[in-house]
Amino acid sequence: MALALSLGKRGEGAVWPNPAVGCVIVQGTRIVGRGWTKPGGRPHAETEALRQAGRAAKGATAYVTLEPCSHTGKTPPCSQALIDAQIARVVIACTDSDPRVSGQGIAMLEAAGIQVEIGLWEDQARADHLGFFSKVDQGRPMVTLKLASSFDGRIATATGDSQWITAAPARRLVHAMRARHDAVMVGGGTARKDDPSLTVRDLGISRQPARIVISKHLDLPLGGKLAQTASQIPLLLCHAPSADPQLVKAWQGIGATLLPCAISAGQLDPHDVLQNLGNHGLTRIFCEGGGGLAASLLNAGLVDRLIGFTAGVAIGSDGIPAIGPLGISRLASAPRFKLHSAQTIGPDVLHIWDRA
């Protein structure tokens, strides 16, 4: 199962709206098939592993990180494929909460006389499939908020100078993290100030995550890097219904996808933004700021994982903070996270925190 989980991770960021599943088929003491969900969500992991195993799948054990599907979509159900291959035993890390599958895949296997075991490495599997479960259960993708800051929590000096607070190893790792998410998201202020491309670079990866910009008025540079690549790499713009129709038309004309979102307290409602992104099929979002967007997501309780890169440099209170005002008067009401891991990355410290 540990191998199946590691295989499943290979699909992260490339298989949405499907889950990134891994599957290993074992005949006796020999691995005869391995598979993981392929880009675009198909073929599924079980299908790939069965194809590799061939006739050796008969009487074998399949280890799969998520309950095999039981419904016919663009591909036949994986439960039926396991039955047809005459698999003798299926070990499942965790059940699927999708109502089209939940319990039905297991029932199909058991009805065919296949021995089914559930719960091996379940906690790890549920963590790996968090984005998929979040979309199914809550209608929204999971959100990872990444902050790269000075020791005193600043992302730039008072004049806006920010390149570079963290060193090259940390920045390279950020690109790898982008690649494992469906989309990279920033606020409109960051898009205007930094003119980012939000792509994965220098890792030999051709498939790019979608890019998301949260901009109430759509007042983004039509000559910037995002606009220049909108027809080649998916660009989603979340905006207010009242945004200038001419700007909406202009962005649509260069290939962007426009998502009008509800307004709450004068700003884009973060809950509605994420619901719209979930409706679009996204399961895993990597948010890179700025401070206003980070504060909005934290205040709304929508951040599932915090990733911090902290550099050994002090900028001072006149610098730009990593997180905007939260309006917190009592410490007890501040959003809290539990430490997942910490390590050094070059001269910087990486710390990862999960929602408490």
UniProtKB/TrEMBL annotation:
Residues 1-117 form the CMP/dCMP-type deaminase domain. Its EC number is 3.5.4.26, 1.1.1.193. The keyword NAD does not apply. Signal peptide: none annotated. Binds 1 zinc ion. GO terms for molecular function: 5-amino-6-(5-phosphoribosylamino)uracil reductase activity; diaminohydroxyphosphoribosylaminopyrimidine deaminase activity; NADP binding; zinc ion binding. In the C-terminal section; belongs to the HTP reductase family. This is Riboflavin biosynthesis protein RibD. It comes from Sulfitobacter marinus.
